[in-house]
Amino acid sequence: MNDGSITAMTLVSLPLAYALVKPVFVAWARRVEAKPLTPALPDPRLERMEQAIEAIAVEIERISEAQRFTTKLLSDRVGERVAERVGERIGEREAPARVGSGGQNR
């Protein structure tokens, strides 16, 4: 075998080997990537923990809704008292002014 035939065999055999080996490695890589990271069967502890977290979230939402309702009631009550006090003060200011101005003009 001379140098020319070795070079020719190398040029033919390397691409042929690449064409045969590449699909095997690609299939292996896809198989490795397709494996799930989590276990196939769900862990009962994780399911219970998920249910507990959801229950806690519902309770927190109920508490926050009750707090919003209570705050609204208290602010409405305070608003009514402020309106009554402002009305009393306005009435006190207007009453003497009417009497004084009405008596002086007549």
Question: Would you give an account of this structure?
Answer:
There is one protein chain. 89% of the residues lie in helices and 0% in strands. The protein is mainly alpha-helical. It is rod-shaped, with a radius of gyration of 44 Å. The mean pLDDT is 80.
Task: List the defining traits of the structure above.
2 domains, mainly alpha, 106 residues, rod-shaped
What order do the helices and strands come in, and which of them pair?
Blueprint: H1 3-34, H2 44-105
Quick structural overview:
The protein is mainly α and 106 residues long. It has helices at residues 3-34, 44-105.
Q: How far apart lie the N and C ends?
A: 141 Å
Which stretches of 5+ consecutive residues score pLDDT under 50?
Answer: none
Q: How many H/I helical runs?
A: 2
Average pLDDT for all residues? 80
Radius of gyration: 44 Å
Secondary-structure-based class equals mainly alpha
Q: How many beta-strand elements?
A: 0
The proportion of residues forming helix, as a percent range, comes to: over 70%
Strand content: under 5%
Q: So what's the overall shape?
A: rod-shaped
Largest sheet: none
Q: What is the number of domains? A: 2
Element order: H for helix, E for strand: HH
